[in-house]
Structures are given as structure tokens and as C-alpha cells.
Amino acid sequence: MLTLSLEKRGAESPKKLQLSLSKGARFTVKIAWQCEADHQDDVDIHALEASNSGGGAKVTALESILSTYNTRKMNPRGGVLQNNPDGSFSTPSGGLTHSGDIRVQGNFETIIVDGSRIPEGVNEIPLFATVHRAEHGGEHEGSEDGDFNVVQLGSVMLGSNGWEYAPVGRGFTGTINDVLAHFS
């Protein structure tokens, strides 16, 4: 097999995107879903306060899972996160805050990451989007994510140069629980 080097002499390699999460720094992750059909899709965004010591990001407590399915409002018997009056909810540390479950097309859900409140030992924040099956045929199609209904968008990772965003784009088939099986 023949291959060509894609490096140009004298060209700098691309730099990783980097976000400052020093005390007080905050940023927002936002996801929206648009569809031309006349129905309501439901897209959710989730995040984990995880630790990665070389064997992959792992979560060991439900309190570290920022998901609408982990709220007492959505899951009264099993959810551990309390919804605020406006529908938003946070991890106990306040490091991750979700805008609340939005089920109307054309709107979006957000996660706010507050670097000053991320717990000690958390060095990776995997970010996921789930697309629930649409009511107009039970399938969804996407040019980038194919048949997957859960996509890891990326991770915010603590490295030697501080916090950096690493795009992932990995698809999962199943539910957020299938994803959690991989990360716990």
C-alpha cells in the first residue's frame, strides 16, 4: 500500500483547542436538534465527572452523572440530583449544571462547566448527546453518526497544560445506561 506524508515542511502541527478553567472560568456546551418532519424529537445532553488514570474515564457514583434520567423529577425512585424551580439541575459540587430537559424542536439544552467547582480527582468530563427515536417511523438518519443514537461529542480533559477539549465523535447503540456500562 502506498501512502503519502500529509506534513508540509516548515508547517506547524495543529494545536489542540484549550479552555481556561482557572478559578471562576466557565463555559457552556450547547446542543440543538432540527428536523423537517412534523413531530417532536427529544435530544438530551449528558456529562460525567470522571477520573481517568490511564484505563479510560470512569465514574463511581451516581452523583457524578449529569443526566435528566438522574434527577428526582424524571426518576423519583432512582434519580439523585434535585431539580431547581426553573428545571435546571447540577452535580453536588456545582461543577456541572444542566439547563433542564427541553422537548420542543428548535430549542436547545446546555451544560455549564464551572472550573472552580470541579471536584478534586476529576480529570475528564465526557459529553454525550442522545437522540430518542422519532415518532415518524422509529428511525433517524444522520450523515455523521449513522445508526447510533448516543454520541460522545468529546471530553474536557485535564492535562499538563490545563483543561483541553478533545473531540471524540464515538457512537453507541442503546441508551445512556449502555454508555454508563462503558464508563463505570
SSE layout and pairing:
Layout: E1 26-32, E2 43-48, E3 65-66, E4 89-90, E5 96-98, E6 108-114, E7 124-131, E8 150-159, E9 162-172, H1 176-183
Antiparallel strand pairs: 1-6, 2-3, 2-7, 4-5, 5-6, 7-8, 8-9
Walk me through this protein's architecture:
This protein has one helix spanning 176-183; strands at 26-32, 43-48, 65-66, 89-90, 96-98, 108-114, 124-131, 150-159, 162-172. It is mainly β and 184 residues long. Strands 3-2-7-8-9 form a five-stranded antiparallel β-sheet. A four-stranded antiparallel β-sheet has the order 1-6-5-4, with no helix packed on it. It is globular. The N and C termini lie far apart (40 Å). The model is unreliable at 134-145 (pLDDT under 50).
Radius of gyration: 18 Å
Report the portion of residues in β strands: 25-35%
Number of domains: 1
Widest sheet, order of strands: 3-2-7-8-9
Please write the CATH class name. Answer: Mainly Beta
Number of helices, counting only DSSP H or I runs of 4 residues or more: 1
Low-confidence stretches: 134-145
Mean pLDDT over all positions: 79
The rounded distance between the terminal residues' Cα atoms is: 40 Å
Main sheet?
A: 5 strands, antiparallel
Q: List SSEs in N-to-C order.
A: EEEEEEEEEH
Q: Helices and strands: which structural class? A: mainly beta
The CATH superfamily bears the name: sav2460 like domains
Query: So, CATH architecture?
Result: Sandwich
Helix amount:
under 10%
Write down the overall geometry: globular
Stated plainly, the CATH topology is called Lipoxygenase-1
Number of DSSP-assigned strands: 9
